[in-house]
Prior knowledge:
By secondary structure, the chain is mainly α. It has two domains: about 5-25 and about 60-260, Alpha Horseshoe (Serine Threonine Protein Phosphatase 5, Tetratricopeptide repeat); about 295-405, Tetratricopeptide repeat domain (Serine Threonine Protein Phosphatase 5, Tetratricopeptide repeat), CATH 1.25.40. It has helices at about 5-15, 60-70, 75-90, 95-110, 115-135, 140-165, 170-190, 195-210, 210-215, 225-240, 245-255, 260-275, 280-290, 295-310, 320-335, 340-350, 360-375, 380-390, 395-405. α11 (about 245-255) packs antiparallel against α12 (about 260-275). The chain is elongated. It starts with 6 loop residues before the first helix and ends in a 16-residue tail after the last helix.
Amino acid sequence: MSRFQPWLVICLLMAGVGCKKKAQPPVLLSKPSGVSKVTPVPSEKKKPPLPQQSPQPPSNDWVAQGLWWLYQLRYQKARESFGNYIQHNPHDPAGYFYRAATDWWELAQNFDQDLPSIRRNFAKDYQKTLALTKPLLKSQDAQVRAKAYFYLGGIEGLQGRLLITQKDWAKAYFAGQRGYKALLHALEDDPHLEDAYLGLGVYDYYTATLKGVRGALSSILTSGNRERGLDEIQRVIQKGTYATIEGKVFLIEIYLGHEKKPDKALRIARELQKQFPQSPAMQLAVITTLQANHRWPEMEKEAHDFLNRSEKKVAYYTADDIPAGHYFLGLSRLKLGNAEQGLVLMNSILKETANENSRWATFAYLGRGQAYDLLGKREDAKKEYRHVLSRKDVWDSHTEAKRYLKKPYVQNPQKENNSSSF
Length: 422
């Protein structure tokens, strides 16, 4: 499984959450400190100085502001903006819906942390959104009904995604169905509400391809349609108002996953990086699609730049992004056969990560095992793999560890023979 996390955005995709086409960048994850004794990528010396000025959000629209801050993963800033919208529009479900999306995104982004207060906030905003949409569904104004159905579909989509993370397949399916039907009603009332097609597309695609859902619910599942889902996402990208960016991010996810078309994913990731050059999220999308394409020298260069920006806190890059930089730079060094440098970078993650349950710590232990295998230290490698198995299974880390316990990790730059997503 790819290390890219459009699950960080996919949580919004199922709901059709988006921002205006001209809205600003997103962001991503991690934790503290600098690299010690790591060889820089030579070409990095020729890069121009990194900009120190942070881009600013739109100033005349609370929802646009909130979405902009949400894409920077500045959750409290996003909540403040949506709170302002709620204060001035107390009977409009939009503010509560977007605030619930903020809670969802924070939960999804920090899945390796226990955040009970955020879960409670999500539950409250979920219920409030449902309560405010109900009377609007009876409106004589088709446009008002359409928006109400849109937010109803969106909030049920978010609820479904939350239940999926909890592996509560039955409840997730029924929430998804409620959302799907609401989005169909929205389009009946307003056929030009193009953003609704994003939620429909996600539902159609995932109910047709998700093994967990299909296996658990095969007797009752009304299956989606893979091709229709892809067409609906493409439609949003071409005609959507708020969800164009999310549609592109979703395509990256499916091209890296079930579709197995990493070259197409990379093209889209490059487009988004060009559109949002200050966004850590979009840069990580490029890094992980380069990984999926086995383009290790390019990945090394991009990861080094990501780490540099995170250490210097350029724009909305933060120290919390540093472990991700260390991991992907270390991974690229391993893939290029530099086990010593890879080991240094994996060790850096373990030194700087305060959260023992961090996903990056798990990846670091696995990376250390790979490095030890490359260095011919098989017993040390086995120790690391066993440690991975003692931890929570994150993104198939247990599958990888079991594979390398049976057979040592071997680096092959000409043909990747380990089928590892690491």
